[in-house]
Amino acid sequence: MKTIYINTSRPYNVHIGAGLIHQAGAYLNAVVGEGLVPSRGQSGRPQGSPLRDNETHPPHGGGQSLRPNEEQCKPPSPREVARSAGGSIALITDTNVNRIHGDTITASLVAAGFRVVKYVTRPGEGSKSMTNLARLLNFLAEEQVTRTDTILAFGGGVVGDLAGFAAASYLRGVRFVQFATSLLAAVDSSVGGKTGVNLAAGKNLAGAFWQPEMVLCDTDVLLTQRGRRFMDGVAEVIKHAIIADPALFARLGEKGYIRSNLAEVVARNVEIKASVVSRDELERGERALLNLGHTVGHAIERLSAYKITHGYAVAMGMAVEARAAARMGVCSVEVAGKIEGILAAHGFDLACPYDAESLAAAMLSDKKRSADTITFALPQEVGKCVLVPVKVGEMVGVVNR
Q: Which pTM was predicted?
């Protein structure tokens, strides 16, 4: 198993390995033993690891107060039993993940003493809406989830974004753990604290930075993904290699490399993202480099009504932006060709179905826009990207294929 420490304002660990779904309850117990949300990190040790043999923690939420004498002889309710044992877990997932893995993770959590309440949503970007967020917040209130309980995002990027924003909003902030079940979530969206939902005007326009207490990535679970959903994550792996790791970029040329070396690939991608996020947690500068392919990619997603999934849209976006970088003199034609080549070799269709005018119009509501400028992350060479501000009036020319 590999563990990567994320050094943000609220530090946490990312655990990567096989069979973690069966240990989820033990890992969660280690996290909830830290106490209330404001006390995160006060123990002085990295959080989110199962307890060592000589470690103990107080009951969830601290010591229990005595009840009046006449109440002491009443048997505790199931909710009280769960809270004294470990607390409540609000398990947020989607129908696909729940069908395959829901019973397994629930059994692990219950065995660890948790009371589990489950919110199951539809898969896909359509669930990242203000309407669904309101339903989830009302569910948490109806289930009497408190600030000493934990929200567990058990799914891919959509579930993580939705559950994370709910955790940041509900009761002004409750504890939050990510269990990534997709390659896309494991290498990208589960790390860094970005949460949010989509608005009619664009993707991820409502949200909050809310760091998780811990991230779990079970490689056995990730390998159950097939086809396009796994490929959504492959696009982000390629993106990280273009941004920061020429050696990884070279290895990605080997057929089957990602699946054959999944734990190492996930760990390296988390390291790359953690390094950037630790220096610019709130995306005021360097972190915007992680948006390579996303400015155009988000526009493609929106124009397709999210029928083109995130990874495929980002792959198209990286191709469009690499060609733009070459035309602008930011990178050589050879570098742009290498980027398009590796994307095509992995099976991505790079033929963007939208013209430059449509893309430019869709990008006007991008959250990376500042007044009359949108900042692009563009490749300078394999392993290095730069931020390039572009005037809104020049957008059509930049993305003209």
A: 0.85
